[in-house]
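[Discussion] Sanity-checking designs against the backbone

I'm trying to build intuition for which residues belong where. Below is a structure token string of 604 positions. I'd appreciate it if someone posts a full sequence so I can compare it with mine line by line.
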């Protein structure tokens, strides 16, 4: 970590906080070389124009009259348009996930009273499979926008959001909870306002893990893209144009040419996204590593270098983003006074009045929330009355079968992701080489390849049960790998150099440095992988392709079948049982490991 400078007086402290107590004329303006417009700026302008055009085309599709069922054209000429539609849905879901992550994760990490409710609620949300969100989300949004496709499009975005948000939130929560003690003390000495602590301490400290978990979120979004673009509710079917629908239609019709074309298009889109977005972010986030000296072989990105040389980006930053940031900072400074600052009596009266109004609003909100919960519980009881004790017994046995498959998938994934993730994370050279490969492989929807896997594995002992374990593994091992990579990349280079200088043996290096350093990230990865495995059971234990349905005994299979048949009572019972099992695992195992990580394995 770079040397920490503690301000000695109010003037310096306010300068650190973004304030200004020194006269402006005493500060010489920082002269920056003027950049000339060139081909780089022309390329950036063309990209912006293309993005605006895609938004306009998508908006015309969103506002068109509602068309629940459409004909998916399997000709290669439609793939660019379908890819654009799917990419836009993924991007909107990611933006929504990022906003949710910062708000929810920050409150859960900094508010002890809220933490007791929000973390278990997050466990519940990540344990609910995407198909269990499907009926309520689709019916509510389609009913809200009955005359246009906006409801269907928003439903697809929300469903993709449910496959992206939870692991990002857990990653940010873990980073905010395990901040180094010296940085916490420095923020207290500098008297940073809450919003300054959020932007200058929490967000930078979480950036490396959040970026790698964002990659995993996109991979999870691609995994469930087929389910989110083809929404089936009993006899009703809603379909959206996109790569997911294209791959699903090609798999159902057994069109191998179209299936390969769709996968090639998806891989090309993932590679472009990695080169133009993720790799620049990884190179930019290297500045947030906690270390005493800079690493000689740091991650690089040609795109990031180009953006830094762009006159257009510099002008936008100087004339648009910085003024907006200054205005927002001024507003936040007025809303959040310095910690410990004295207040006038009039201000106290105003705060008391605010507290009174806020208290009334809080009571009203709690009453409305309580009424909503009671109404929901009543309808839940009415639905669960239709589930017999025999069916509950079958659900429990099915949960046991799915638990065994989940455990096997996690152990197999853990066996290879730790050595591979550490090798990639500790070597910037291998990180640059393998990051695109890992991103592509992790993002390929295993559900599109499942017919091929099923044909290859159905003759082996275990049949579909073995195929279900493999599909779970393909959908969840990346949660562990990406978090392990992030943990290895966050190890300060001075600690790595110390192990080299003192000739620490390989096993002792693993025991005293690598495993303790990646342990918090590993816990986050296994927690999200566990929840992801239970979610993946819904699509791995019950598969429909080429007009046929194949299933194996398990809780995911029962949930998927009940959703396809419109049996909402059984769907609710299976979802509640799955959520209960996942929460019990999280409370009894992962929460204790989180506490161990917070107590013993914090750098600093």
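Best answer:
Here's mine. Compare freely.
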């Amino acid at each position: 970590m770079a040397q920490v400078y503690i301000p000695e007086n109010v003037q310096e402290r306010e300068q650190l906080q973004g304030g200004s107590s020194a006269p402006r004329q005493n500060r010489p303006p920082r002269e920056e070389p003027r950049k000339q417009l060139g081909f780089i700026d022309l390329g950036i302008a063309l990209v912006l124009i293309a993005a605006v055009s895609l938004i306009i085309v998508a908006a015309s599709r969103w506002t068109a009259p509602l068309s629940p069922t459409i004909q998916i054209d399997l000709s290669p000429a439609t793939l660019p348009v379908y890819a654009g539609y799917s990419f836009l849905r993924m991007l909107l879901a990611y933006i929504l996930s990022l906003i949710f992550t910062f708000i929810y994760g920050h409150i859960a990490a900094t508010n002890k009273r809220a933490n007791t409710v929000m973390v278990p609620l997050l466990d519940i949300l990540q344990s609910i499979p995407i198909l269990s969100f499907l009926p309520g989300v689709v019916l509510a949004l389609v009913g809200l926008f009955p005359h246009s496709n906006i409801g269907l499009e928003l439903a697809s975005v929300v469903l993709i959001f449910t496959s992206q948000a939870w692991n990002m939130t857990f990653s940010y929560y873990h980073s905010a909870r395990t901040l180094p003690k010296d940085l916490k003390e420095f923020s207290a000495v500098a008297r940073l306002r809450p919003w300054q602590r959020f932007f200058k301490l929490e967000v930078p400290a979480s950036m490396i893990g959040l970026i790698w978990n964002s990659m995993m979120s996109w991979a999870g979004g691609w995994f469930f893209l087929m389910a989110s673009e083809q929404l089936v509710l009993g006899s009703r079917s809603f379909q959206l144009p996109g790569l997911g629908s294209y791959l699903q239609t090609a798999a159902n019709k057994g069109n191998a040419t179209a299936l390969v074309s769709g996968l090639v298009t998806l891989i090309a889109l993932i590679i472009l996204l990695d080169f133009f977005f993720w790799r620049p972010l990884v190179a930019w986030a290297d500045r947030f590593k906690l270390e005493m000296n800079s690493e000689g072989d740091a991650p690089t990105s040609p795109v990031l270098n180009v953006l830094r040389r762009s006159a257009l980006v510099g002008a936008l930053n100087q004339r648009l983003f910085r003024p907006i940031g200054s205005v927002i900072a001024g507003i936040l400074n007025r809303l959040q006074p310095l910690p410990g600052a004295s207040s006038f009596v009039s201000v106290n009266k105003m705060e008391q009045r605010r507290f009174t109004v806020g208290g009334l609003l809080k009571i009203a909100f709690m009453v409305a929330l309580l009424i909503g919960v009671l109404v929901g519980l009543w309808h839940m009881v009415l639905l669960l009355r239709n589930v017999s004790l025999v069916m509950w017994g079958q659900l429990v046995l099915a949960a046991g079968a799915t638990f065994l498959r989940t455990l096997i998938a996690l152990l197999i994934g853990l066996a290879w992701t730790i050595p591979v993730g550490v090798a990639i994370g500790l070597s910037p050279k291998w990180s640059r080489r393998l990051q695109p490969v890992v991103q592509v492989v992790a993002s390929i929807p295993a559900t599109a390849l499942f017919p091929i896997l099923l044909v290859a594995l159905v003759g082996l002992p275990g049949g579909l049960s073995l195929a279900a374990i493999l599909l779970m593994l393909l959908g969840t091992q990346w949660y562990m790998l990406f978090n392990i990579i992030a943990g290895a990349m966050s190890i300060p280079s001075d600690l790595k150099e110390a192990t080299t200088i003192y000739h620490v043996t390989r096993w002792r290096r693993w025991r005293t440095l690598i495993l303790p350093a990646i342990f918090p990230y590993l816990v986050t990865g296994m927690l999200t992988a566990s929840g992801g495995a239970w979610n993946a059971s819904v699509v791995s234990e019950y598969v429909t392709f080429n007009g046929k349905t194949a299933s194996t005994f398990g809780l995911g299979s029962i949930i998927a079948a009940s959703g396809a048949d419109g049996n909402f009572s059984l769907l609710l019972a299976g979802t509640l049982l799955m959520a209960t099992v996942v929460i019990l695992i999280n409370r009894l195992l992962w929460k204790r490991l989180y506490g161990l990580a917070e107590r013993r394995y914090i750098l600093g």
